[in-house]
Amino acid sequence: MIRTRFIVSATVAAALSAGCTVGPRVDLRNIRYGSVIPDEGYCDQPYVVITRDGNWLCTFTTGKGIEGQLGQHVVASISTDKGKTWSSPPIDIEPADGPEASWVMPLITPSGRVYAFYDYNGDRITTLGDKKNIRADMLGWYVCKYSDDNGRTWSDKRHRLPVRVTACDRTNDWQGKVQIMWGIGKPVIVGPNVFFGFTKLGRYMLDQGEGWFFRSDNILTERDVEKIEWQMLPEGDHGIRAPEFGSVQEEHNLVGLSDGSLYCIYRTTTGYPCHVYSRDGGKTWTRPEHATYTPGGRKIKTPRACPRLWKTLNGKFLLWYHNHSGKDFDGRNPAWVTGGVEKDDRIHWSQPEILLWDPDPETRMSYPDLVQQDGRCWVTETQKEIARVHEVDPSLFEGLWNQGRAAEVAKRGLLLEQAPVKPGNDVRRVRLPNLVEAAGFTIDIWLQLDDLKPDQVILDGQTERGSGVRLLVTEKGTVGLELRDGKKLRTIWDTDPGAIKPGRLHHLAAIVEGGPKIIMFVVDGVLCDGGEHRQFGWGRFDTGLADLGDTLPLQIPPSLKGTIKSLRVYERALRVSEAVSNYRAGLR
Known about the structure:
The protein is mainly beta.
């Protein structure tokens, strides 16, 4: 299976590099078009650094079994063609027949030396009480090895980092004689210093998590590994956690701000990640609180999945997450991304976009990395068995960062534009594309409803056989988009409760994505996320619902209690950033 998928992705990549059109049904956000990173079966946390020879070096955790089984170890692979192909078999950083070695994070220094930091079961812990052969990939030491030849060989000696025994350890199952910990992400450089985060557990397995950081002030310049200085932060006996957010507070990762401050985000099982700031180099941190898009604003939603932070080469920020308030490990498809900019010493996050998706809703992608080189961007991800690399259109990220400034009406794919629109008049007949991969449509409308009486039809675009679309008021007092194929399939998804208010002028963009089969609404420049009312603000429609029928006669019914100030229909799914820009452009 891996080989087949690699052939498909390589074909697409070759066509793109040659400047060829790969066809209207290809959406490169579909993870199955990515280039596969070779592994031994299990594969996790594929993180990339660019070595001084211009190649990519990817370190990851692998093994012939499933996650946590004996034989799990850390390896590296090299790509000379920006992630299209990789050296195989992977290069051992630690062998499969040694103690478990897991969760490797690479750092490249100005000299070109590459460090790999990882968990290592150096005491060969295999039992807990009367339990034998326990999962041991988070037990033991934090260590590092290094490479001075761009990852082709690694130091024989591993160097142990000084993990302080703290209150969390002393109350664990081994009373601190064994420590339980792991890290995600990569070390970050902030001024002359290097930081990386990790999570300790107070109870085996995966309970009472809290965040810690290693800081080194001389690793970027000191060649003698024995002389590298390490400080474990925050100061004191307790890591980053707040009891009100429950037992699960883990996978802490961080970025540096322009003034040297630190920002950290981590996952919980509350449906929301938590975030903290440090203004003194990691010694102390603000009290954890649910992460918000803006200070005091709407909470960011994500389940028990890695919320991954990056600081990009232009000094701005990206956050990978899943945009719903689930409380378990599920719901990792699609992956969403929001862009962050600094304002008043805080990160302000944009409305998000779908970054990657898989045709199977049950696919769980996570533990990504961002690669930037020669003005291009890539993202890695893994589903634990297959890890891949995906090139991303940089304009997607630019759109996120520019949401506070862009105020232009999108023109590409515009089928219809009319303002105002009088009830009872045919607007125009339009043909919407079949809802297959890389296809979709958008209804962009300025409307003011006198009331929210249920079953009011705002826009009717159904054929005589019952196929087509309708925009209507639901029994919940929301605005819903209904899709029908005229046979048996029907889907309706609606705005969040309270988003549309009677007597008020609103801008609404109903966006239909044919690839991931998702309907979403952007109301007054804000993507509906379900708020406190529901887990999801976006919804999926049936994969069989593709053909909405022949040319659709769009009409504003005369019974509508309200006015339509402007109507646009696009034969493509607008990006969320485009919908925000349309809103900011105002009525024209």
